[in-house]
Amino acid sequence: MQERLQKLVGQALTRLREQGGLPSEPNVPVRVDRARDPSHGDFATNIALVLAKPAGIPPRQLAEKIVQALPADSAVRQVEIAGPGFINFFIDPAAQFEIIGRILEEGERFGRSETGRGQKIHIEFVSANPTGPLHVGHGRGAAYGATLANLLEAIGCEVHREYYVNDAGRQMDILAASIWLRYLECRGESLPFPQNAYRGDYIREIAQDLAGRVGDRYSQPAAEVLQDLPPDAPEGDKEVYIDALVDRAKALLGQEAYAAVFRAGLEAILADIREDLEAFGVGYDEWFSERSLVRSNRVEEALARLKEAGYLYPRDGAVWFASTRFGDEKDRVVVRDNGQMTYFASDIAYHLDKRERGFDYSIDVWGADHHGYVPRLKAAMEALGSRPERLEVRLVQFASLYRGKEKLSMSTRAGEFVTLRQLREEVGKDAARFFYCMRKAEQHLDFDLELAVSRSNDNPVYYVQYAHARVCSVFKQLQEKGWARDVARGQGNLSRLEEAHEQALLTALARYPEVIERCARQREPHQLTHYLRELAGEFHTYYNAHTFLVEDADLRDARLNLIDAVRRTIANGLKILDVSAPESM
């Protein structure tokens, strides 16, 4: 109905322009929203207020012209002008029944549209460093990114899902050194484990597998490994110590052996991440390697373009990007004084590569702790000639996991964390995906394990799935009684749906396409979980107040068509969240 009214208003504006009653510009999109107060109608638009100034016409007077130019439509019972120039639409009650026929006809397509057709959108999400298993904090970004991609596809966008593999740089070297030290332990060497190395059983497992494959070939005496190294924390600097140990590993192992240790860690952890995400319902069109940028000289090329444009300068032996010229709080280093390129330099090259692949928009889903990184990256893209709005960064706040009153740690370096896999095994994929999307991404989320596994109405995902299962149970009971639904008879008797609960369900069902559109445009999947809970609530109230399988076949079939429309809509929404819609519970 919302889309139908927008077309009517658009036709009225076109008619006024053709008659000379409106200037041809600006061609402002028409927005029709649901009225918050039913006394003000079912829908309203503020288009007269938006166009009044450029048209040079008082808004209320313009609203009158628009109303007069509106084409007739049987669904619109009344149109009123309110306040300074709002146009309120009152819908004929009979028109509300049309939504049931539409849902039954469109099935899985209900709620989908082509409003985003022609837009190519790149969405990069999770992209956790391959230095350890995914933890529950990564899970929230995975659920958000995957659901947002589904929403964008639901409105017709062409979506490319990508994982950026940070397989170059210091953290990967620390991972390799950590694995090598555990490997040496497997071969009988005794060494102190660095404060800043990666811990956790997964490091031991990779080292044991490596030892089983190569035997003593990569072994070195502990005394030679530790000779003349600077002190580790707490006596010394843990950062200096781990960097020295990485250099020692490279020197003692040699290029080929060090690369083999490096590769063993990368491949094992990346395989684990892939498997974990696939089991979580998250798939990608591409896994993009940071090292591919380095090998292809794309980083140097990006920096050369910035230099040619006059945005790089030397200082204190390093090379700096003048990001303050684009609103950043300070300039940023792209090449360190030791000649090594920074992560920022690689990120510039990566985002330049995205742009040159022809995407209209790039959406990056990052953890909230990266908020300070956004201005510098947008500055770099603007310096390279890209419009800032083509890069969107969505920050996802941390998710804290509780078992009872105990808050669980999520430190990957210490190895004391709950993995995404452990969470999924404990509460199930459905609960994890739904719970992660229940709050706005920018808001902190406390994940309640006990609630997630409870079979109660307080558990949101259970509450929604139970509504779907309840409808299925009604149709099973229908068969058990030896009755059959006549869909056409039900459609012919929808006027029998006079109860307040039935009217509330009709209104809720009609909102679904609007919710999908708004979720996608505003990048807010949590609105979908809220909608599904509200729809389930309306259904449960209806279920508890009325009998569906009544003797009156006309009324029975009308009610069955209504609850079948509810079931299909819930199933469609859960599919976008990648949550199952069980037929029994």
Q: How would you describe this protein?
A:
The structure is a single chain. The chain is an alpha/beta fold and 585 residues long. Among the domains are: 2-91, 2-Layer Sandwich (Gyrase A, domain 2); 170-269, no CATH class; 460-577, Isoleucyl-tRNA Synthetase, Domain 1 (Orthogonal Bundle), CATH 1.10.730.10. Helices cover 51% and strands 13% of the residues. The chain has 21 helices and 17 strands. The chain has helices at residues 2-18, 47-55, 59-69, 98-106, 136-154, 170-186, 201-214, 222-226, 238-279, 290-295, 298-308, 343-356, 374-383, 420-427, 429-436, 449-453, 460-480, 487-492, 500-522, 526-545, 553-577, and strands spanning 32-34, 43-45, 76-82, 86-91, 120-124, 158-165, 286-289, 312-315, 318-321, 332-335, 361-367, 391-396, 399-403, 406-407, 410-411, 416-417, 445-448. Strands 7-6-5-11-12 form a five-stranded parallel beta sheet, sandwiched between helices. α11 crosses α12 and α20 packs antiparallel against α21 (553-577). The longest helix has 42 residues, at 238-279. The radius of gyration is 30 Å and the shape is flat. The mean pLDDT is 94.
Keywords:
Isoleucyl-tRNA Synthetase, Domain 1, 13% strand, 21 helices, 585 residues, 17 strands, five-stranded parallel sheet, Gyrase A, domain 2, four-stranded antiparallel sheet, single chain, alpha/beta
Short structural summary:
With 585 residues, this protein is an alpha/beta fold. The protein has helices spanning 2-18, 47-55, 59-69, 98-106, 136-154, 170-186, 201-214, 222-226, 238-279, 290-295, 298-308, 343-356, 374-383, 420-427, 429-436, 449-453, 460-480, 487-492, 500-522, 526-545, 553-577, and strands spanning 32-34, 43-45, 76-82, 86-91, 120-124, 158-165, 286-289, 312-315, 318-321, 332-335, 361-367, 391-396, 399-403, 406-407, 410-411, 416-417, 445-448.
